[in-house]
Structure formats: C-alpha cells, structure tokens
Amino acid sequence: MTTSLLGAPVARSEDPRLLRGEGRFVDDLGHDAFEVAVVRSPHAHARIVDIDLGDALEVDGLISVYTFDDLPERLREPLPLLIPHPSLTAGRTQHVLADGEVNHVGEAVALVVAEDRYAAEDAAERIMVDYDPLPAVVGPERALQADQAVHDDIADNVAAHLEQEIGDARAAIADAAHRLSFRLDIERSASTPMETRGTYARWDADDQRLRLYSSTQAPTSVRAAVAAYLGLDLAQVECIAPDIGGGFGVKIMHPWPEEILVPWVARELGHDVKFTEDRREHFVSANHERAQVHQVEVGFDDEGRVLGLDVEFVHDHGAYIPYGLIVPIITSTQLIGPYKLENYRVTFDSVYTNTTPVTPYRGAGRPQGCFVMERTIDRIAAHLGRDRTEVRAANFLQPEELPYDFGLVFQDGRAYRYDSGDFPGSLSKLKELIDWDGFAARKAAAAAEGRLLGIGLAAYVEGTGVGPYEGGHVLVEPNGSVQVSTGLSSQGQGHQTAFAQIAAEELGVDLADVKVVTGDTRRFPYAVGTFASRAAVMSGNAIHLAARKVREKALRIASEALEVDAEDLELADGKVRVKGSPDTSIDLNVVATMSNPLRYAFDEAARIATQFTQPGDPNAPPVAEGEAPGLEATDYYSPIHSTFANGMHAVEVEVDPDTSDVRIGRYAVVHDCGTLVNPRIVEGQIFGGVAQGVGGALYERMAYDEHGQLQNASFMDFLMPYATEVPRVDVDHLETPSPLNPLGIKGAGEAGVIPGAAAIAAAIEDATGVVIDAMPISPSQLHARRLDAASTT
Amino acid sequence: MTTNATATGIDAHDRVEVTVTVNGVPRSSQVQPRRLLSDFLRHDLRLTGTHVGCEHGVCGACTVLLDGAPVRSCLTFAVSVDGHELTTIEGLAAADGGLHPVQQAFRDHHGLQCGFCTPGFVVSACGFLAEHPDPDDEQIREGMAGNLCRCTGYTGILGAVRQAADELRATGDDPRQRTRDGATASGEEVSS
Amino acid sequence: MKPPAFAYHAPRTTDEALATLGELGDDAKVLAGGQSLVPLLNMRLAAPAALVDLAHLDGLDAIEVSDDRVRVEARVTHERLRRHPAATDAVPLLREALDWVAHPVIRNRGTALGSIVHADPAAELPAVLSLLGGQVELATSGGTRTAAADDYLLGPLESDTRPGELATALVLPRPGVRTGAAFDELSRRHGDYALAGVAVTVTLDADLAVATARAAFIGVGATPVRVDLTDSLSGQAHDALAPADAVGLARDVIEPTDDIHATADYRRHLAGVLLERALTTAAGRAAAGGTA
C-alpha cells in the first residue's frame, strides 16, 4: 500500500459540480411541474369555522384547492408519532391539513395547486378562512400553569414526565459542604438551512410508479411513509434526496404534510407537482428547537467536586410531539458531560405550547445540557474562588476509568456508556491553545485601557453514531469503476469524499474511480437517516465492511486464477498482485469480469478474463454454492450502543463597557472524534458548528409574543451571523479511537455547536462580573443586567 | 398579448418579452412584469445555479452580476434588466470545465459544504475582487458579509477569497470573466 | 414569497414618467432600485396596481457638485454616490453614512434618494438630509417643488410624496468652514438597520471652540430626530468637550420604543453613548480642517 487515504485531508469530489452551478437541488428539478402554495394559519390557536374559496377559483393558472374535507380517509389520520416512549402518555401529532383546529401559526390549512407558484400564492391569499380564535399558550412556564390547554383533552399540557436517577442525588446534596440552587434558561432557535424544505413528485401512470425527490435527511423513511399513506407497495415508490442545501436536523423530521400531500396530488392530477417552501413559511412551518428552562440544585465539596446534582427542567416541544422525547432525553443524559457524577437526578416535563413544533436541531438538546452543566461548574468555581479549569479537572472521569457506564438509559434505549476519551489531555491542549494561563495578564492590560476582557470555557461529551444500523453496498464494475452506495442522505458533510476514501483504502483503488451515491432508495433501500452525528460512524463502517467483503472475494477469485495463496496477495493500484512481486497481478476490473460467468467480450477486460478461465468442473454449477455473480457485497453496521465523542471550547470576548456590545476575540477548540477520516471535512464541521454556537449565544432566537405570533420570521430579524460576526477558530485534535467499530470513528457533525453558548456565557460573565443565566443575550439585555447588578451592589 | 419590455403600459397579467445577454449568450423569454429575475434565470432560462434562499434580499444566494456589478436577483424584476448583461455562476468556469480561480480557491479552502449558498458567494466574490483587487483581510470579511452561509462558519470562504485575490492580482485577469480553457486544472482531480 | 401582479410602465424620459404617474395617481408606485420595495412586494405587504420603473429611463442619473451644494438625482445608487470623490469631499458625512448602509451588493442597486423616499426611521440617509438641512426636489407633469427635509419626512415609512409626483433629486448643502461631521451607529449584525445611530456636525469658532453643534438620531423616533446641541456645547474647546449636558438633552428629546432587538431604555442609553463618541470625532475633524 501507498500512503493511507484514511486521515488524509483530500479535497472534496463534490465541489467542482457545486462550484460550477451544476448542483441538483429539489427546486432545480421539475420546471414544468404544477406548484403548490399552502394556506397557513395566522393564529396560534383557533377553531376553523369555515373555509370559503371565494374568488380563488377564478385565479388564472389555478388547478385545484384541497382542504381536510377533500382528503381520502387515510390522509385524514394524524401523522405518525415516530418515536414512542413509555413515558410519552399524551402524544399528539398534526394532520396533513388542519382538522377543524389549528395549534400554531403556520399550521397547514389548505393546499393550492397552480401552474406556478405566483398563481398559487394569488389563489391562496384569496381563500377566506373563518377562524374562532382561542387563547394561546406560549412559553414552557405558561404551559405548566395549565390555565389554558393547547389540546382540549390534555388539560395540564404535559405530554410526558420522565425521571432518571443514579445514586441518591437529594441526599448527597443535603450532606454536601456547599450547596447552590439557581435557574437557567435557553431560548428557542432553529436549524434554518439555506435551502428550505422541498418535495417534487412524479407519478408515472403507465408504470404505476411514484418517484419522489425530497430535501430530506431520511429518504428511506419518507418512502415508507408515502407508500403507507398512499396505499402503494414499497416497490412502487422511490425516494431520492438529491443535493440538499443543509439540514442541521430540521430535515430529519418526516413525513412533513407536504411530503404526503404532494405525491398524493401528483397521482390525483396525473401531473408532476412540486412544493418549494419559501423562507417566511420555513420560519413558522418547519420545526424549531432549544427552548428549555432548568432548575438546578448542586452539592459539592471544598475542591469543587460535585457530590450531588438535581436538575428539573421543562422542555417546550411546541404544538405537537412527532419526534417523541428524543431532545429532552438527550439533554437529561448528555448534561453530565465529561464528569464523574455518582449522584444525579434529572426530571423533565415535555409540554405543549401553541408554537411551531420542536424536533432536533444540530446538537439536539446537548447545547442546553452543556449550558446547564458548565454554568453549574462555573458557579461552583466562583463560589469557592477556584480556577474554573481546576474545578473541571477535579470532576473529570479519568482515561483509565473508560469505558464507563453511568447506569442511565440513552436516547436509543441503550446503556449510557462512554467508550473512550482523555478529558484531562483535552483540557491541557485547550489551555495551551487559548493561552489560558496568560489570560490574567491580557485582562489586566486591557483593564488599564478601560477595556473589558473575559475568558470562558466549556466541555461536552456527545453521544454519536446511534443505531440501529446503516448499510453499504460496494460493487466493482468490469470497467474498473467502484460504485458505492448507502441509504442515508447528504447535506454537505462530504460523504461522497469520505466514503470514497474508506472504500478506496480497503480496495487499493484510485479515489477518482470510486463513485458514491447516498440517499437514493433505488440504490440502497435500507437506512435510518442522517442525524446524531452518525453518518461517518454508521455508513462509514458499513461501507468499510462491504468493501472488506469485496476485497475477500477479489482475493479468492484472483487466488484461483493466479494459483497463489490468497494470503500472499494484496490489493493496490487497482490490481490484485502478489506481495513482493508486483509484476504478477490481475487488474481488479478483470477480477470483476471473472466474477460473472457470463462475459461477452464487449471490452478488453472480458478478453483478458477469458485467459484466466479454468476449465470448469462439468459436474458443478457455474455459480458455485454460496457464491453470486459480480464483484460486489452489501454489509451492515449495527453497534451495541453509541460512540461518545468529546471536546472543549474556550473563548475570549471583549465587552464594550458603554454599549455592552460583545465581540469575540480568540476561539479555541479541542476535539476528539476518534479516528479522523478526513481532517479537512471534520474541521469544516467544527467551524460551521461554532458559527451556529455563536448565533445561539449572541444573535439567534425565535421571538414569540404572548399571542403566539413569531415576530422575527425573516432573515432581517432572525439574526443568523454573517462573516463579520463569526470569529476565527483555532482547532486542535485529539484522537482516541472508539473501540466499538472497526474504523475507530466517532461522529463530528454536531460537536461544534454544543458548548458555544456555555463558553461565551462564561466569558461574558468573566468580563462583566454579571451572572449570565440565560442565552442568547443581546447588548440590550446585557446592559440591563449590568445596570441591575450595579444597583444591587 | 406580448410586447417589448420597455414599451410603456404592460397589463399585470400580460406577458412581455425579456431579452438579456447571460454569460455572453443572448437569451429571451416571455414573462409577466412581476417575474423575479431569480425565477426568470432559474425556471425560464433553466440556469439553476443561481439559488434562492430568502426572497427578501438578505441571504445573497441569488447574487448575479448585472453589467459587471453584483446584485440580488430576488430583488430585481426581469423586465427591469431587459437589454442588459448578466453573469451567473454558470458563466465563470471554462468551457472545458476548468474552474475559475475563485471556484478553485473555494475548493482548495473547503469554502463550501452543502453548496447551496456557494454560487452567491462565488459571484459576490468575483464582483468584490473586481472592485478591490488588493484587499486586506478585514475588507474581505466585510466584502463577504452580505451573504449567509449556514455550513462553513465562513472560515474556508474567507481563506478562498484571500487566495483568489492573490492569484488574480498576479495574473491581472478580470475576476468577472469566464476562465479560458486549459487555464486551470479541470477541477476534477482529487488531491489535497 | 412571489410579488402580486402589477401593471408595468417603463418610461424612457422624465416627461414620460411624469405623464404616466399623473395618469395613474394613487395606483402607481415608483420602482427605482427596489431594495426596499421588492421585499415588501415579495411578502405581499404592498400590492400597488402599477409600477413605474425608472430602470429604462434616460437621465435622472446625475451627481452635481457646486460651490454650495451636492445634488443627487433619483437613479443614482448608494454605491455610485459613495465612490464619487467630488461629492463625498464636498459633504464628507455622506461617505461615512453610506458606509453604514446595508451591504455592498444592496448598495449597488439601492438608490440614495430611494432610501429617503422610503423613510425608514433607522436608515442613514434621511438623517443626513435632516441634519444638514437638505431638500428633496419633486416633480409632476405640472411643475416642480422643493421640500425641506423636516417637511418631507413625515413618519415611519412615510414621506410627503404625493400622488402623481416623482422625487427627482436630493440636495445637500455643503458645510461651512471649521465644520466637522461624524456618523456612528450600532447594529446587531454588520449591515443591519441600526439599533440606534447618530449623525453630528460641529462647527468651531476661530479659537477652535464649539460655535454650533447639531445631531440627528436614527432608530429612536418616527423620523430622524434632530437635536440642536449648541446651547449645551458652545464655547467648549474642541479637544476638551464635556458632553454630559448634550447627551442628557438628546436622551430627553428622542423617543425610542421597545422591539425584539432592544428596549427603549437601552436605545436611549446607546444613543447618548454614540452621540458622545460622534461629537468627539466631529470636533476633532472640525479642528483638523473639517474633513470627515
């Protein structure tokens, strides 16, 4: 073998196409399709008295309009509750079109189909819906007051109450030398990918087949949902996730109402139909996240060691709960971070509000948990007057204690067991990277000039690569190309490149010969989806295993042809060759040709292959028992439990003493995601995650008023950071390979976003001396807190 | 009824012929006055490289060059640019596929992930570099601050514009011009 | 987010434009750069029956700099004006204010006069017009009139452009000797509308003490809020300003409101901080020869 492809920072094979403007996103397809517009509720909570189509039907270009009453019986059922849980006793999900009641602004009420989106919007604005408004429940604490119900039959607004405990947290706190109690608050945000949602359906009446293109992180599940709702065999439905303009979690939600309605209408009308969500719709009809309020009690000793931690929180899941308890369960377990907690109790209520539903956004409950734990550690340090890094070090699980089983149940229903990591090692790298020990001098020098500097840090552990499985298919074609496919889809993570590296490494072929397809059910029908930082772990290992099978088969075939022991052969440079005498070899494409007993001499490989053909045993079948034609294999990777990546961020901020405007100076990241397949891609994930963390700390919030109106449903007022708001980031890696999978990979997709709010809050607190217990924080809010603090001291 | 875009008095639902020169090629289509330039390019001329991310002028994904200057195609009506010259993302790479120096720099610096905002960034960068051939890093940051990216954290983008600025200054090429065949590697090679 | 249908008029000459506007009256909106109007159309927050597009018009694109004023016609974009050395040398505040306007790509198409006609209370150019005592020239097919800034800027997104009228130019007087100006603002993100901002001019006497001082605030009232600070500052040395009285006066006069980005109290505080900074800068510039 030449130098390893695994760990090489190769440039992405996706890029040239995307850079030339040749990407293929959903709205780039179907120029002749009918387009839909959705009439959405302007009320947070209302009964629908009447829907009057008015003069909508006269709009030039209108094709048809559908309301709940026009739907067939199957489509009148509520959408599925995807992930049930024994504690989820009052689960409600939405309908594809509202059935007499709307529960959030943006809920779909009617579907308009027209020749183009302009005409569809013309008709949509003419449809008169008569609403009887009801009081809106907004905010988790209002929900718990239970003076108004979101759903009539759930008077307390609570969908689920869950409690987990290890040890005896309350007793440990009571016995501790020091105790603190405080509240922490994290507001709502959302994934907001640059490409909104989109679905395009083509019904082929001749073949009785449906082809669906959808901007989804779960194409195999969308396919299954559509088949079920439309009464089709899976064999009649294919779902393709083409290029996807970012997901960050929101596109793991499925099926969206439009993902069911659009194919249904396409079949009804016998015409292609497309839905391209606009940005304003996206803010109210695509799901949000974050939004939790935590009450913390902690007991600790003189060294700052946490003896007992008791956390009670309320999780605002919005109007419906299609994704179950995934987000709050992740918060409640991942809150622990890299610390050895032996007495920990956590409870949460997941509550309904009249707001857009909540499902995972990058980090999926972890930024909240990290904020709670890290703010707790900082409070302990402040209380004891100790350095914040020392208190962290005093609480770390030590490398020799891993793997460590906490005795909790994780999001996948399996053991919460850290597989590997070196938290003290990470901390010492981080301190060096940000020059933690030199900060006091920097702060003092700045203070002499009247400037306020602060530094903060935050650590996290991230369960990644949850099961149950992903699969990979690897096929060597007689022309030498290597076709790789996996079922999950790609939203910019560089899967084509990283998976090609994994396959090429195993097969000894040129990277350029490997062609990777993701998210196309025609190529690989079994998959779970792209979420939980799982693609590299799950599909990466599945492809590795499939490639290994192909390799074994190639060795077997070549061994017979060359009459050399398989153990003496190797795959390299696109050949199977004899170790130590590379001139004795067969090209891999010739092996591929030999793998199929039928080989018409269409090409040179077939002609060469015939030279190696042994006269077959006339009494044996041409395809031996247990064999199959073709140099290909499928395999699956299914782990016992999650891998656990980890890392730490540190940040220096400067606060304008007069305006309370916060500017980020240094930002340092130490990151351990096990084996790096492609460091360039991993760093890109970190940089992007940090930007979202900065957004979540200083800029981005979904601002609902008390009536449930989202007041900032545009990019003018939802403040996604530009280049001018995002700092330069220094990254250092630590690689502690996971023992759980052959490649030693842990996930990297979400890590960058997790500790941002916690670290920035700590830095602002350090700069200003004002306790920061809520995120995000604006200059206006920080100014008010500084005034409050000044007036109370 | 169809008529010329610059005649006065087109009824709201009438169609009007709009002719523009896109990437050096004259193109025409019949559109309503309200047709956004972004939709005209994407769906009438089927140049889908120009993307639409917000339709209120904030995200910059739809940026194209109008007579050499970057503008938001979602805030421009096709009828308003009748007779003008446009450059879109499709007009930068060489006919043989060779990447434009800005495109190559984005690849070299991992300046794109999902690729959706990328055409807007590349086109904006070309316009920016034509006006600022020798920018400092702060000018680059501000110059790219009219476009939103949700994937990259901008790190690779800023590095890419730095590289492209240095290269274009060395060659003296106008960043808004299509790259010549053979001028850069095809862009298909896979290397670090 | 597709605009509603509108009839379309693309006059070739100013006379043709005025004739069309006269005919259409209330039904027509003028489309210049479109950077404020088109988002409103795309969100269907505005639905004019007709648009009169200046894009194909010959003329109305001059920047005239004379001894006493700068005159900028309707089709001049922010960016063209920003890069016009004679204009920005004549009125240095223009350059600094234009640097704060949105992002370069928006400035490439948005027009300077259009932003005044649009009259967003957080926009920069209306404040410059108000502070410097500028004027807007308006025309109908029947004649022309000139409106002073204070008469023209009526309220949030409301200017005194009457049915059938076309705003044809903005006029800014050139500052006198020993006059310095500055613009400062704070926005959440670079290029966003300001949480609050201020433009100031300071004129010094022969001893380099303050003779007159004025400010115009944005984002803290229904229109740019102009405050004469002369009484608070006159006689103070340019390099030893004691602006507390001026800041107090300004904070009393402005009328900020709460929104999701900041409270009224914060905006009031911020406006004072920015004023203090801008006064110091402007006084320094006035002493250095009156360049911004």
Describe it.
The complex is a heterotrimer of chains A (793), B (192) and C (292). Chain A contains 19 helices and 29 strands. In chain A, helix 8 runs parallel beside helix 9, helix 15 crosses helix 16 (604-612) and helix 17 packs across helix 18. Among the domains of chain A are: 32-134, Aldehyde Oxidoreductase, domain 3 (Alpha-Beta Complex), CATH 3.90.1170; 362-466 and 641-792, 2-Layer Sandwich (Aldehyde Oxidoreductase, domain 4); 468-637, Aldehyde Oxidoreductase, domain 4 (2-Layer Sandwich), CATH 3.30.365. Chain A has 793 residues and is of the alpha+beta class. In chain A, the strands form seven sheets. Chain A has a seven-stranded mixed β-sheet with strand order 3-5-1-12-9-10-11, with helices on both faces. A six-stranded mixed β-sheet of chain A has the order 7-15-14-13-8-29, with helices on both faces. Chain A has a four-stranded mixed β-sheet with strand order 18-26-27-28, with helices on both faces. With 192 residues, chain B is an alpha/beta fold. Chain B folds into two domains: 2-91, Roll (Ubiquitin-like (UB roll)), CATH 3.10.20.30; 101-171, Orthogonal Bundle (DNA polymerase, domain 1), CATH 1.10.150. The longest helix of chain B is centred in the last third of the chain and has 17 residues, at 155-171. Chain B is globular, with a radius of gyration of 17 Å. The model of chain B is unreliable at 1-7 and 186-192 (pLDDT under 50). Chain C has three domains: 7-53, Uridine Diphospho-n-acetylenolpyruvylglucosamine Reductase, domain 2 (2-Layer Sandwich), CATH 3.30.43.10; 63-173, 2-Layer Sandwich (Uridine Diphospho-n-acetylenolpyruvylglucosamine Reductase, domain 3); 179-288, CO dehydrogenase flavoprotein, C-terminal domain (Enolase-like, domain 1). In chain C, 34% of the residues lie in helices and 26% in strands. Chain C has twelve helices and 14 strands. In chain C, the strands form four sheets. In chain C, strands 4-5-10-6-7 form a five-stranded antiparallel β-sheet. In chain C, strands 11-12-13-14 form a four-stranded antiparallel β-sheet, with helices on both faces. In chain C, a hairpin with a 5-residue loop joins strand 12 and strand 13 (210-218). In chain C, 60% of the residues are buried. Chains in contact: A-B, A-C, B-C. Chain A binds chain C through residues 117-118, 121-122, 125, 278-280, 658-659, 661, 699, 703, 711-712, 714, 716-717, 719, 721-722, 724-725, 778-780, 783-784, and chain C through 1-5, 39, 43-44, 186, 188-193, 195, 260-263, 265-267, 269-270, 273-274.
